[in-house]
Design a protein that fits this description.
There is one protein chain. The protein is of the alpha/beta class. It has one domain: NAD(P)-binding Rossmann-like Domain (Rossmann fold). It has eight helices and seven strands.
Length: about 260
């Protein structure tokens, strides 16, 4: 362990797979005690077991981030287990129904996507912020997407685009509110990353997979560990003068003119 976050406590929602799992493992390698929060129990417990096997400390709290009572219990459990909270990565999210145009999009799916991807980020910050402020300074990183930086076809669905745009607005607003109190709040905006969610979506459509790859000038998808590296940097002293920023990790995807 390098120890960049030694004696600190990091909370990662959606920490059971993909970017969340990679981030939890990265925090642990750097010396942090890690709390994972997610809905899938088995996968989360597997991640906790990996961290403990590697000599780290980790705790799992089953959480649906769209429910305030569960989010409060998540933060309370973090403080009960480790006594403090220094960093939070609000990563939990779903895609909804891709390839459905706006007029055909179901209201129930819209509500679920926005509740988890956007309301869930706000609820997490609502309960994380007071605990982080008790220790004078800290950092929060919210998960947006390259889809939060621009519109697109129905490929990802209107609710996903809207929720990820909303995360950036929410991040900028709260970053301004708490900057003078030593709390930095940023967002990350990944391109297409090799996660279970993406693999499930693209496995159904080879043409879509090829198109998605072509969208990245580097000619490949990103890896969860590459996003985790950016997240840890945003939490570190190396990013001490950065707040309210939407940090793109997309292999050049957003630089393409068409």
């Amino acid at each position: 362990m390098i120890g960049r976050f030694k004696s600190k406590v990091a909370l990662v929602t959606g920490g059971n797979s993909g970017i969340g799992k990679a981030t939890a493992l990265a925090f642990s390698r750097e010396g942090a005690k890690v709390v994972l929060a997610a809905r899938r129990i088995t996968k989360s417990e597997e991640t906790v077991a990996i961290i403990r096997k590697q000599g780290g400390q980790a705790h799992f709290v089953p959480t649906d981030v769209s429910k305030a009572v569960e989010v409060k219990a998540m933060v309370d459990a973090c403080v009960t287990e480790y006594g403090r909270l220094d960093y939070a990565v609000n990563n939990a999210g779903i895609i909804g129904t891709p390839e459905i145009q706006a007029e055909e999009y179901e209201e129930e799916v819209w509500d679920e996507v926005v509740d988890i991807n956007l309301k869930g980020v706000w609820l997490c910050m609502k309960y994380e912020i007071p605990e982080i402020l008790k220790h004078g300074k800290g950092a929060i990183v919210n998960m947006s997407s390259a889809a939060g930086m621009k519109g697109g076809p129905a490929r990802l669905g209107v609710a996903y685009y809207a929720s990820k745009h909303g995360v950036i607005g929410l991040t900028k607003a709260t970053a301004n509110e708490y900057a003078k109190q030593g709390l930095r709040i940023n967002a990350v905006c990944p391109g297409v990353i090799e996660t279970p969610m993406v693999e499930t979506m693209l496995s159904r459509n080879e043409k879509l997979a090829a198109q998605a790859t072509d969208q990245h000038p580097m000619g490949r998808f990103g890896r969860p560990e590459e996003v985790a590296t950016a997240i840890l940097w945003l939490c570190s002293e190396g990013a001490s003068f950065i707040t309210g920023h939407a940090h793109v990790v997309d292999g050049g995807m957003l630089t393409r003119s068409a």
